[in-house]
Amino acid sequence: MASSHRRPALRTATRNSTIIETVFLVGLVIVIAIVFWTYQIISSNIEGAKHDGAAISFPLNVPKHASLSKKLDFKTVDEESIEITGGYEHLSRIAQDLAALQPEETLQKLQEEDPFGTRTFDSELTEKETELGRVLTIDEIRQLFPCPAEQDRITLPDARVEQKAVDFRENKPGTFLFFQHLRKAGGTNFCSLAEKNLPKHAQPSYYCMPDMGWSGNKNAGYLHDWSNEEITRRMKEQGFRIAGNEWENFDVSRHFELPAVFATSFRKPLDRALSQFRFECIEDRGCRIKDVHNWWDVRKDLYNVYTKTFADPPPGEARQYFRGNAAKQRRKYMQTAIETLSKFHLVISMEWLAYAGPLVSSVLGWDNLTALTTRVRPHIGQAKREDGQDKNSLGSASIKKASWVPEEYLDAAQYKKMSEDLALDEVLTDVARRMFLERLVCERRD
């Protein structure tokens, strides 16, 4: 009997013990959750501060096999469900990290670590061209720059709208080629290429720039000033199939909405700047300043001109951020510029024009590629050049022979100043060159 009286007490004690254990476990879970989320918030803040600061520590060498960007199917996370979407995000972030540094640090990282692999390739290419005395084959190019793994390619995922290129190749009425002409970076060569492949009536009469006629012969290459509707209507009415934009930024907010395929050509930034000084000032084409120091001090509009062209910041805004503690703003410019370039169907390197043929043919459907190996010099009658480089028989090596060498022409102080004033453009040029190389050696062309 005594034992039977104790059973309810035992049951009560057991029930109380179970409740206590349950409360304890629930409390423990809550505490762990609070600690976890607190850690996440602190970690996120630290990471954000790290990205906004100018002092950034990172290994710039791109991993050869590591997964850079993956998209997960949330139905399952087994190995077969993982789709590699390319290295764009990772490589763009490397470029942004470089842009956040002070200019001298940016240049040092590019030179010492070559994160995009284009500088090593360029050096080896010139050496090989000179050794063989000719332009290399695509297979020989692949030996110097093999197609990277998909997760290491900045051109993946592909941001281009392929249908626009298809429409252009099929001569769909109203479609045209929008060429962002970076001055003294191969634009005249590209216009000559267009002239050899388009009917005469489809070519604007003044260096592929239709707005010369639209403005009553007052302006040419100022397409930022014209609305999309006006550009589209005039191009269609006149039957023009190419429009060059040389003197204004690419309008990232609306130009991609045009019925156009997009192309541009880059050149090493310091080489481009010296070429413009030589062309305009030394050879007396509208410039009377004969000293490069004075000229560069006056032409602040040319500082990081590539980055401004493709990031399209408000007029006068960007220059104040090129140095100093504006790392966040420089990152933003670089991110926007790379995003813009990734949508261009053709991104060409002037030094490597001799190798652009396969890309030009596959994107534009053009067959006459002779302009890619023929030097085209605008207004050459005003100042003849006898450098023996009218015919490009050595590819990149020929371009170098026809250009002033910055290290030789500039004194050390001016070389340093101009290089640092173009530091963001150096990063963007390396990115553009990698885009060119990846598409050249990786894409299938049937």
Describe this structure in words.
The chain has one domain: Rossmann fold (3-Layer(aba) Sandwich), CATH 3.40.50. It has 446 residues and is mainly alpha-helical. The radius of gyration is 28 Å and the shape is globular. It contains 18 helices and six strands. Helix 3 runs parallel beside helix 18. The strands form two sheets. Strands 4-3-5-6 form a four-stranded parallel beta sheet.
The geometry reads as globular
* Helix fraction bin: 40-55%
> How many E strands?
6
Give the uncertain stretches in residue-range form. 1-14, 41-82
CATH class: Alpha Beta
Span between N and C termini? 96 Å
Instruction: Look up the CATH topology.
Output: Rossmann fold
Which class do the helix and strand fractions yield? Answer: mainly alpha
> Over all CA atoms, what is the radius of gyration?
28 Å
Q: Give me the number of helical elements.
A: 18
Strand order of the largest sheet: 4-3-5-6
Feature tags:
single chain, 446 residues, mainly alpha, Rossmann fold, four-stranded parallel beta sheet, two-stranded antiparallel ribbon, 6 strands, disordered N terminus, membrane, transmembrane helix, P-loop_NTPase, transmembrane
